[in-house]
Every structure is written in structure tokens, then in C-alpha cells.
Amino acid sequence: MRELLTPVVVAPMAGGPSTPELVIAAGRAGALGFLAAGYKTPEAVEAELRSMSSPYGLNLFVPVPPLADPGAVERYREALLPEAERYEVDLPPVRLTDDDHFAAKVELAVTYRVPLVSFTFGVPSAEVVRALRAAGSAVLITVTSGDEARQALAAGPDGLIAQGGGAGGHSSTFTPAMYRGDRPALDVLAEVRAVTGVPVVAAGGDTPALLAAGAVAVQSGTAFLLADEAGTRPAQRAVMLSGAPRETVVTRAFTGQPARALRNRFVDTYSALAPVGYPAIHHLTAPIRAAAAARGDAEALNLWAGARHAAGRPGPVAAVIDALRA
Fold it and tell me: Based on the number of CB atoms within 10 Å of its own CB, is 80 exposed (0-12), middle (13-18) or buried (19 or more)?
């Protein structure tokens, strides 16, 4: 696996920012990019896999347990009705199950012998890990603590991703109700390395500092949101380029899973109301977010971004990678 990793890894950013063009450009610039399979149909994932040539990675979402309290999500749906009226959309019924086509996507990874497969939101079964490794894939599991690292190691991965609290987008925490996003990446990296000798990729902090602390690579997503090749929504690009950097906060308001985002009206209004409920809440808010994006209204969008987002600059992927290496 070490031969696949480069010091800078372009993180998978589901929902649009990660594109095949971004991953291909990263490879040409001497970095490793990840495709994001989350939310896509197997057919869409396969089309992206067919476009790959140089080494790359693929990220999969591990299915989460069934909702502990469907009633809490139903109450949140009621709270969102004013937003549905504001954006002239209908909210869907609460969707109790959704495995994001996990088995089909694993099978695609096996069929296409994806060089590196990473997992978010939990630990895949040892059987899945064995199947991937038998096909020639190296496997990484994302964790946010030493205890989660121990659980992940039981599945037999080739390495781990230690995700710090400053990382943008979804946290891969196994305990979303307790997650606060207040642990620096250096601390999480040290804790994970203390319980294992497998290679550890770090995420959510300064690249040179994390490499110096023993990470075999540093996974970065926020730095690439403004890259020419990224599929970041125009409304988010406009906010990030406005010259008035916003605070980032950890919120469950958009998906029911804690995620770090730029603060906006939706975050302020609904963060305190949103229960743990991924992916049910993701599906509830999807029509609102789509309508807001169509209007160019960033105040109801999930503006995923890390704590260091103000350092982001537009330009080609190669230039962003050079800046991170400096």
C-alpha cells in the first residue's frame, strides 16, 4: 500500500466536488486522488471507474445501523416544513433504510481491481476486506479515535485514516451522538498510531506537521474545493471567494451525521433540532438543498469545509498540491 500513497492525497468529497477530472489531474501532478462513490448509483460509479488509468482510490460508505428513534426524525421533518414552503418543494416520507448500494459498489471495486479502497461511517466486514485484498486492492478504514482504530483493525485493513476534528464534511465517527469535532488531527494521529503499526493516513490538519508526526500521507479535501477540476457548487465557490471567511461548525442539520460546514442560516436554525439520523435526514433535506442550489442560495446548502478553509485558493489541482507540499 505504501507504494500507492503520495504525501498529498485528494480526499473523496461526495455530493459533487470529487470528479474524475479532479482525480486524473491529481495523478498527473504526482498525488493520489479518490473517487467518491457515496450517493451515486452503481452505474455512475462504474462509468467513473472506467475513466481511470493512473493509481487512484475509491471511497465507500459503510451502511449505518437502522434508526434508533424514527420518531425523532419524523419530528425533525415537521420542523423542516417551513423550509419546504420557502423553497417550494415537497419533503419525502422518512426513509428508514438505505445501504447506498453497498454490496454492488464493493463488487465493482473487486471487478475493477481498484488500487486503494477506503471506507467511511464504520467498519466493513472482514469478508468484504478479504474480497478486496484478494482482488489486489489495498484497504483503508477511517477512524476518529484509538478505540475506533482497534475496532477497525479487527477487519484486517492495510491501513487506517485518522480523521481530526478540523476536517471538512462528514465525520467518520462511530458515535455520532457524542461527536464534537474538537480533537486536533495531531492528537487523533498520535492516539491511532499508539495502538497499531499499520500505516496511518492523517486528515484534517496541516500537511507538513502531520507528515512530521508520522503520517504516511495527509488526506485533504477542503484545499481542493476551489480547484478548477472540482465539481463544487457555484454558490459555495462564491461564498468561499467572497473575501469574508465564515466560521465553521459541526452540525447534523443537513444529514443527521455530524459534519463540519461553513455557518449559514440553515445551520443556525436547525443544528439544535437535528437528531442523529443518517441517511434519513440526508434524504429529507435533499429537495431543499437542491432548490437552494438552483437559486444560488448558499444559506440552505451544506457548505462542507474544514477549519482551514480560508487558505483555499482557486486554480488547477497541480498548483494546490504544490502549495500543500510547501
Answer: buried
For 72-109, write each residue's pLDDT tens digit: 999 999 999 999 999 999 999 999 889 999 999 999 99
The residues near 35 (Cβ < 8 Å, ≥ 6 apart) are 12, 18, 20, 23, 45, 48, 49, 52, 56, 57, 58, 59
Asked if 281 and 266 count as a contact pair (C-beta separation under 8 A), the reply is no
Q: How confident is the model at residue 326 (pLDDT cuts 50, 70, 90)?
A: confident
Q: CB of 200 within 8 A of CB of 163? A: no
Q: Quote the CA–CA distance of 222 and 143 in Å, as a whole number.
A: 19
CA distance 182 to 164: 8
d(CA 80, CA 289) in angstroms, rounded, equals 12
Q: Dihedral of the CA atoms 60, 65, 70, 75 (nearest 10)?
A: -50
> Helix 20-28 and helix 317-325: axis angle, to 10°?
50
**Domains of the chain, first to last:** 1-63+99-229+308-326 (3.20.20.70), 67-98+247-302 (no CATH)
- Enter the pTM of the model: 0.97
CA distance 117 to 126: 14
Q: What is the rounded CA–CA span in Å between residue 22 and residue 35?
A: 9
C-alpha pair distances (Å), 264 with each of 79, 98, 224, 250, 267: 17, 28, 21, 12, 5
Please name the amino acid found at residue 274.
A
Residues 6+ apart with CB under 8 A from 242: none
